[in-house]
Design brief:
The chain is of the alpha+beta class and 347 residues long. It contains twelve helices and ten strands. A hairpin with a 5-residue loop joins strand 3 and strand 4. It is rod-shaped. Bound molecules: phenylalanine. Phenylalanine (PHE) binds next to strand 8, strand 9 and strand 10.
């Protein structure tokens, strides 16, 4: 084997041994670089006679082009291998399920409120919403809850260290009852001077706040106020309306309702409304679902109406509680933790 053949063989072995592009470039320099073996041989040509130079030069050039094509082949092989490795590493498993954007769903309390609105809507009740940051007057005074009266402490209200533009203290409303006053006043104003006024029939669902927190109380919770005021609306109507609501809401006739005497400054007489199912897991247990009563004359006056002419009832119920009963949830806090494992069960 002549010297040039063994040089080409050595280059092939070196190139094959190079595992990376960088190692291959190093190997290339050993043959084709400025001090490389082929380059040195070329330099040696200078000492030869023209004839020798021609023959030797052609042989060296042939060896050089062999080395160059070996180098090129090895470069391609390394690039291929790299590409294959990358393809393998970044391979897509097209059999995996796609990642879609979640569509979301309604919170169980929102569903419950929608259900309440639909049922009362079918009985001719309007739906109203009002501010969660309320004035002291709306939350208490207008509701026959005199300033400094101990009954105010029935509700562990969040007082805010702020007054409104008219200097009235603000609070996070502890109940939706201020909506009775807001709605009735707007209704009275709208129909003022028309001789007769259409009945007020409204529900007002929304968020309410109290300093209260355990398995059955949350500092933020929901209430839904109901108000029906007319010329001759009585406790009997309340009983009919509320019982119909319970029947529709729970889709059963199999329950009893009782009105248990209670006290609220804004109603007289006042009653807690309890229901008990006659069958099912809650069979026989009295469950308090609402406070209610005939609207106190002082409150009707604060509606801007004459209590001699306008009479009716109000109630306030807890959609959170109703949702828990309907879905069989035993801890109120689950409702407001935002845990998707819980929430997605309702959609
Ligand atoms: N506002 C009362 C409460 O939060 C409930 C209620 C509303 C009672 C309307 C009577 C009439 O407990």
């Amino acid at each position: 084997m002549n010297e040039l053949d063994s040089l080409v063989g050595a280059a092939r072995a070196d190139f094959d041994a190079a595992a990376t592009a960088a190692a291959l470039e190093d190997a290339k320099a050993r043959y084709l670089g400025r001090a490389g073996r082929l380059t040195e041989l070329m330099k040696g040509l200078a000492k030869l006679s023209p004839d020798e130079k021609k023959a030797r030069g052609a042989a060296i050039n042939a060896a050089k082009s062999q080395v160059e094509s070996l180098l090129e082949a090895r470069r391609r092989a390394l690039a291929d291998a790299e590409l294959q490795a990358q393809l393998k590493a970044e391979a897509l498993d097209v059999t995996l399920p796609g990642r879609s954007r979640g569509t979301g769903g309604l919170h169980p309390v929102s569903r419950t409120i929608e259900r309440i609105e639909a049922i009362f809507g079918s009985m001719g009740f309007d739906v109203a919403e009002g501010p969660e940051i309320e004035t002291d007057w709306m939350s208490f005074t207008a509701l026959n809850n005199p300033e400094n009266h101990p009954a105010r402490s029935m509700q562990d209200t969040f007082y805010v260290d702020l007054k409104d533009a008219e200097g009235r203290w603000l609070n996070l409303r502890p109940h939706t009852s201020p909506m009775q006053v807001r709605y009735a006043r707007a209704h009275a104003a709208k129909h003022a001077g028309q001789g007769s006024m259409p009945e007020i029939r409204v529900i007002a669902p929304g968020r309410t706040y109290r300093v209260d927190s355990d398995a059955t109380h949350s500092p933020m919770f929901h209430q839904c106020e109901g108000l029906w005021i007319g010329e001759n609306v009585s406790f009997k109507d309340l009983k009919v309306v509320f019982t119909s609501f319970v029947r529709e809401f729970f889709e059963t006739d199999d329950f009893d309702v009782r009105f248990r005497p209670s006290f609220f400054p804004f109603t007289e007489p006042s009653a807690e409304i309890d229901i008990a199912f006659r069958s099912g897991p809650l069979k026989g247990r009295w469950l308090e679902v609402a406070g209610s009563g005939q609207v106190h004359p002082n409150v009707v006056r604060n509606y801007g109406l004459d209590p001699e002419q306008h009479i009716g009832f109000a109630f306030g119920m807890g959609p959170d509680r109703l949702a828990m009963l309907r879905y069989g949830i035993d801890d109120l806090r689950l409702m407001f933790d935002g845990d998707l494992r819980f929430l997605t069960q309702f959609n």
